[in-house]
Amino acid sequence: MEVSTDFRTRLLEVVAEGLTIFEIRPLLAAELERGVSREKLYQELLDTILLLREQGRETEEERVEDVADLMSDWVPREYRL
Question: Highest taxon of the source (predicted)?
Fold first, then answer.
């Protein structure tokens, strides 16, 4: 299963709204529940980070990096996806 075509748009919208990573977490969880693999979802986050870097959108880039941490060992186990 591929990541939803509007995932990046929705992600950037909630990042721009200033939601916390824990408020953004359900967006990622919904993709996983749809059957998207962790690898594909993580790759989409990395691709989004690179796009933001290319566009010089440092603040948003850092926020998406924080969101990507939800899929790593950088956050407590109970918050990981």
Answer: Bacteria
